[in-house]
Design brief:
By secondary structure, this protein is α/β, with parallel strands linked by helices. Helices cover about 50% and strands about 15% of the residues. The chain contains eleven helices and eight strands. The chain is globular. InterPro entries: ClpP/crotonase-like_dom_sf, Enoyl-CoA_hydra/iso, Enoyl-CoA_hydra_C, Enoyl-CoA_Hydratase/Isomerase. Pfam families: ECH_1.
């Protein structure tokens, strides 16, 4: 299923156009292992061109999102480094997370992060590349790397993109923990909820909104938004956007969306 026959670290459930991906190592607060990295990459590879999957919900089992990298894996890599006499294992593991977070960032689907409990290190990075971030008020965020004598190597660029350089400096260099309300204030999450019931209700409402958007238009819009932050020639980008707009308006989706609006009904893709 979705590139993995028997996932060891994930729970996967498809609900129509929505794929629920649950990090499933609750005994370790869903710490990120090499196996989890490989499985997540496999899932996002498998759905890259799947037009039937329009949203991915990322959350963690057992009341936590993700507490960062697995310390046990770090110990194994330290042993590997001592035996091999090089740092190749560390580089492989760290760069693999960068591959994953970049993949999630550019996934054509709408990525919804449901954040509870620990949202630390790598979990913090995943939160920063979600399209919609919903949060329990008692979640604990932080970039603890410098306090452990390491650095947020693969996460840093995405944190800066999410909240800006000034806030990223403060969080990364102090390494302090903060709650959902502070996460909302500085722009990591979009909404904060005081109960599981309210959080799950908001998720349901969010998914309803996603289902009402046109599938292809949503994919093109997400790519356009990403491109707008990376270009040096704005005029060229706007020229390309105009071409994409014309294609969207004249497409089957554009025709159906317009007719649905005129006829005061939901478009077919929202069924």
């Amino acid at each position: 299923m979705f590139g993995i026959e028997n996932p060891q670290t994930l729970l996967l459930q498809q609900d129509g156009a929505v794929l629920h991906v649950t990090l499933n190592r609750p005994e370790l607060r869903n710490a990120m292992s090499e196996t989890m990295l490989r499985e997540l990459v496999s899932v996002f590879n498998a759905i890259q061109d799947d037009l039937t999957i329009r949203a991915v919900v990322l959350r963690g089992a057992g009341g936590h999102f993700c507490a960062g990298g697995d310390i046990k894996d770090m110990a194994a890599l330290r042993s590997e480094a001592m035996t091999a006499g090089n740092h190749d294992g560390y580089i492989r593991f760290n760069r693999a997370f960068g591959t994953l977070i970049e993949q999630v960032n550019h996934a054509p689907q709408v990525v919804v992060a449901v954040l509870e409990g620990a949202v630390l290190g790598g979990g913090f990075g995943l939160a920063c590349v979600s399209d919609i971030a919903l949060c329990r008020n008692n979640a604990q965020f932080g970039l603890p790397e410098t306090g452990l004598g390491v650095i947020p190597a693969q996460i840093a660029p995405f944190v800066v993109q999410r909240i800006g350089l000034t806030q990223a400096r403060r969080l990364a260099l102090l390494g302090n923990r903060f709650d959902g309300q502070e996460a909302a204030r500085i722009g990591i999450v979009h909404e904060v909820f005081s109960s599981d019931e309210a959080l799950n209700e908001a998720l349901s409402t969010t998914l309803q909104h996603i289902r009402r958007t046109a599938p292809n238009a949503s994919r093109v819009t997400k790519a356009l938004l990403h491109n707008s932050t990376q270009v040096s020639d704005l005029s060229t980008t706007l020229d390309q956007a105009a071409i994409q707009f014309a294609a969207a308006v004249s497409s089957d989706e554009g025709t159906e969306g317009t007719m649905a609006f005129i006829q005061k009904r939901l478009p077919k893709w929202a069924d």
